[in-house]
């Protein structure tokens, strides 16, 4: 049954215009510098050039943009001179992500992005809708209404008890484990560099030498000793203190980043799918279709182990790659990467239970791991040695033929140290690496300080391949790689190296048989 034509919310022009102006900020800055500051003094002229056209475009787009629901598809119309009509079948829609920043919440609206299994850019971006219109959009496109009608269950009952809720203290702990503080520090450094504060008249007018001398004179004795430039011990103490201060600052920034981006992270069942909600200022509500989950990865770094925690992320078929990895607010809704959080942080003992709730056929506790070839240690160390040879020669030549008062033999310290570290790391990595084949899935584990476990169900395998480099053929080895519909460019994958060639061939035969006899599932 076809519904009446729906239009965007009456405040849509404000958000569309703001987005257009944001895209014009850099051209505006360029125009200001090119005019020698004349346009900055003439803000009326600057608004006529950039602001007014942006809002005229926003108002026109709001008037021409509309959509309607039919029995089987969503029809979206856009464009003034060139008319664009998109037909989006409901059974192709796998996510309707709702994003609300503080202004959205103040006005009681939300932006909605419709994603399908095609991946790439979202099929439609509705900016903006009322909350009632957004719920209607989800009701029709995601089949919640049809599912409720088929089962006789109210739509509100489709939302079950949360599978995971991440409290603020856990997000703070995740900030200590991760290093997202570099993102905040880089953003602050970028703002400071653009502001040119060090080139201001106030900075130039200061007599910094007098400030330094006055500080030394008024400070306690131990502070005066630390900032004394001539003492070697004081220089070392000062350097160590600055490094520790920087590390503490980065961890505090990392904690703040996670608290802002993922505050209130809640994962719950919504019918047969999963729904993730999170965000302090910008609130994201994203649906994760359970049947489109292609790969699940459990990550445990060294710091994760110290706190008894783990992180779980996943890939879904058709997630958009038009934006950023888990580092940005829309990462969990697939805005820029196929990787999404299933659990940013969770107790290690709950990992297997949570994965089992999402994928009932996968039991991490019952996996029987099989090792890769022990000969891999020699191959890894040999590869490091090949790289070290020219590096060592370059260091020795630099030391021998420069005014540095050292002989070329001092450059030979690198190989024994590096090869020892490489042997220890390779030995640890090979011991920890393992794989497993069960009745329903393939598993791969790797890492040396920490570890990562990735799992792909046979129903999600698109391709399975055996690869052999010239060095693999020389050592009678091969590697097995598995590809899925949601394969991204980065992250831990099912790529099992250093297998005996006969074992790799038998694994490939098994995977081929499983993919042939199992119906592929998006």
List the helices and strands and how they pair.
Elements: E1 6-7, H1 12-34, H2 38-41, H3 43-64, E2 66-69, E3 73-78, E4 84-89, E5 93-100, H4 102-107, E6 109-116, E7 124-130, H5 131-141, H6 144-151, E8 159-165, H7 168-177, H8 181-195, H9 201-205, H10 208-218, H11 221-226, H12 232-262, E9 266-270, E10 273-278, E11 283-288, E12 293-300, H13 302-307, E13 309-316, E14 339-347, H14 351-358, E15 370-371, H15 376-400, H16 414-432, E16 434-437, E17 441-446, E18 451-457, E19 461-467, H17 470-474, E20 477-484, E21 495-500, H18 501-517
Antiparallel strand pairs: 1-2, 2-3, 3-4, 5-6, 5-11, 6-7, 8-9, 9-10, 10-11, 12-13, 12-18, 13-14, 15-16, 16-17, 17-18, 19-20, 20-21
Helix pairs in contact: 1-3, 7-12, 8-12, 15-16
Radius of gyration, whole Å: 29 Å
Q: Helical percent range?
A: 40-55%
- Share of residues in strands: 15-25%
Describe the main β-sheet briefly: 7 strands, antiparallel
Number of domains as seen in the coordinates? 4
Q: What's the mean pLDDT score?
A: 80
| Ends distance | 27 Å
What overall form do the CA principal axes indicate?
globular
Detail the poorly predicted runs: 148-153, 320-337
- Number of strand elements: 21
Q: How many H/I helical runs?
A: 18
Q: By helix and strand content, what is the structural category?
A: alpha+beta
Major sheet strand order: 7-6-5-11-10-9-8
């Amino acid at each position: 049954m076809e519904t009446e034509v729906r239009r965007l919310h009456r405040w849509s022009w404000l958000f569309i215009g703001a987005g257009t102006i944001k895209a014009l900020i850099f051209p505006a800055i360029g125009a200001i510098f090119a005019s020698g500051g004349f346009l900055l003094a003439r803000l009326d002229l600057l608004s006529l050039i950039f602001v007014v056209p942006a809002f005229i475009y926003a108002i026109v787009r709001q008037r021409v943009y509309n959509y309607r629901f039919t029995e089987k598809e969503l029809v979206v119309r856009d464009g003034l001179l060139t008319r664009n009509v998109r037909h989006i079948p409901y059974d192709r829609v796998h996510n309707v992500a709702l994003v609300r920043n503080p202004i959205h919440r103040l006005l009681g609206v939300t932006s909605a992005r419709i994603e399908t299994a095609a991946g790439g850019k979202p099929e439609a971006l509705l900016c903006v809708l009322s909350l009632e219109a957004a719920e209607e959009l989800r009701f029709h496109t995601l089949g919640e209404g049809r599912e409720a009608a088929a089962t006789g269950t109210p739509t509100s009952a489709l939302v079950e008890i949360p599978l995971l809720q991440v409290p603020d203290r856990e997000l703070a702990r995740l900030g200590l484990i991760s290093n997202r503080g570099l993102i905040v520090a880089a953003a602050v450094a970028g703002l400071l560099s653009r502001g040119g504060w060090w080139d201001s008249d106030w900075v130039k007018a200061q007599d910094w030498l007098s400030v330094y001398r006055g500080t030394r004179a008024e400070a306690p004795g131990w502070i005066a000793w630390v900032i004394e430039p001539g003492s070697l011990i004081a220089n070392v103490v000062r350097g160590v203190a600055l490094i520790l201060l920087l590390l503490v600052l980065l961890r505090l920034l990392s904690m703040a980043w996670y608290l802002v981006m993922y505050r209130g992270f809640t994962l719950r069942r919504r019918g047969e799918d999963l729904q993730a909600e999170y965000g302090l200022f910008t609130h994201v509500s994203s649906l994760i279709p359970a049947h489109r989950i292609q790969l699940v990865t459990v990550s445990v770094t060294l710091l994760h182990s110290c706190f008894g925690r783990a992180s779980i992320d996943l890939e879904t078929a058709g997630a958009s790659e038009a934006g950023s990895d888990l580092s940005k607010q829309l990462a969990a809704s697939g805005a820029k990467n196929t990787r999404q959080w299933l659990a940013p942080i969770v107790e290690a003992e709950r990992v297997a239970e949570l994965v089992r709730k999402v994928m009932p056929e996968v039991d991490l506790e019952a996996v029987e791991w099989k090792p890769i070839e022990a000969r891999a240690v020699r191959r890894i160390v040999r590869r490091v040695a090949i790289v070290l040879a020219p590096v060592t020669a370059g260091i020795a030549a630099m030391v021998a033929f420069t005014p540095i008062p050292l002989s070329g033999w001092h450059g030979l310290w690198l190989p024994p140290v590096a090869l020892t570290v490489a042997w220890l790391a390779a030995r640890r990595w090979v011991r920890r690496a393992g794989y497993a084949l069960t009745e329903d899935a393939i598993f791969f584990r790797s890492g040396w300080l920490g570890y990562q476990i990735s799992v792909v169900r046979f129903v999600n395998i698109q391709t399975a391949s055996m690869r052999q480099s010239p060095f693999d053929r020389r050592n009678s080895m091969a590697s097995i790689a598995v590809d899925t519909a949601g394969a991204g460019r980065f992250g831990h994958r099912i790529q099992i190296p250093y297998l005996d060639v006969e074992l790799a061939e038998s694994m490939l035969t098994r995977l081929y048989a499983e993919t042939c006899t199992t119906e592929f599932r998006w």
